[in-house]
Please model this.
Amino acid sequence: MPELPEVETIKSGLQTLLKGKVIESLSFDWPKSYPNSLADTKQFLYGAKIVKVRRRAKVLIIDLSSDYSLVIHLKMTGQLVYKDHKVRYGGGHPNESLISKLPDKSTRVIITFKDTSQLFFNDQRKFGWMKLMPTSMIENLDFFKKLGPEPLEKDFSAEVLKKRLKRRPNSSVKAALLDQSVIAGVGNIYADETLWGAKVKPARLVKDIKNGEFTKLYHALVDVLRLSIKLGGSTDRNYLSAEGKKGSYLAFASVFRKEDQACPRCGHTILKTRVASRGTHYCPHCQK
Model:
């Protein structure tokens, strides 16, 4: 599932590409991907201008001039890819293999704009969704009410991280990092990378983490997320940016998917185990 850096990368791309565009029409081939009434679609989507694209945790929100929004969860295999029919994608264009062939068999929703450009919601496994609802009602969704703070916001600090993690004193520190009600947007890749950066073993209980280690966790988390955003996120299987590009963070990862390789910090062999029911990568020598 895309994590915070991937969704942030998509958000930034869509904000640049879509702001100010007017929606002409929408089509879909899977009702669960677009569970909205035709009446609401005609009244609040058609003819609406895109005002802003934003993100909360791993969810995208496209605000419309109709005071409605499209709330989009990509789940495991969802993609949002933009196609401008005025651009020629052949002739060696880096994204021609994907964009020129859209729509394809994984396309669930197509939004067409007044200028004929289109936004494709692709989802091979059909778990993602795109919900149309009043913008004022979004923050009242149970899902959003339960979310923890955003780790890249200005008011997020080492002290805030410490207080949030200590809500789960008897959990492993990795499980606490993965808990979206503790911190929003962190998943398996960036939890492993954060813990390696802070030299903290993933299975350690939160109650055993020392004050100085919370500060190290904070800086490692922020640094990892910012680096991944700079590199366009992590493409494992299905993730693509709005422009159809793959992210390159995994090529720079320190431990994730690096089992049996040398730790880049101490040279010892990286191990893979299971913590919080997730495959977990760590260095047994420098993570204590």
Remarks:
- The mean pLDDT is 94.
